[in-house]
Amino acid sequence: MAIYTSEFEIRTKAENDIMDITGEVARAVADSGIRDGLVCVFVAGSTGAITTLEYEPGLLKDLPDALERMMPKGITYEHHLRWQDGNGHSHVRASMIGPSLTVPFNSGQLHLGTWQQIVFLELDARGRNRKIIVQVTGD
Predict the structure, then answer these.
(1) CB of 16 within 8 A of CB of 64?
(2) What pLDDT digit, counting tens, does each position of 99-139 carry?
(3) Residue 9's CB: how many other CB atoms inside 10 A?
(4) Rounded Cα–Cα distance for residues 124 and 15 (Å)
(5) CA dist 98 to 31, 80, 139, Å?
(6) What is the number of structural domains in the chain?
(7) Is the pTM above the cut of 0.90?
């Protein structure tokens, strides 16, 4: 079994920035030379998340709206009370979605649905520089 690790950086503009990173992940799989296996995509940071989404304007609006309904900014978070950084909701949202995603691939092609893209979600109260780690394992 072979393992290949790469990383790339992205700069987000603001909270609720949703970026399609499918191309970067597919490139890492291709660069690895591994034909069949799993790719794990991970964000280093506690206020960002990785998931899949149909990357279209309606869902790019719907997802942040849903997160606001489930984990609103305007309530008390102990994290914010302790650190006064205004991002308690960001940490909770990131914890619920998660920092990583694993996708199988065969013949160098990701097994994604027709309308499914891999996305990074900026959940912090401000834009940030983010490091995304991509680890490919297989044969």
Answers:
(1) yes
(2) 999 999 999 999 999 999 999 999 999 999 999 999 999 99
(3) 8
(4) 5
(5) 26, 20, 27
(6) 1
(7) yes
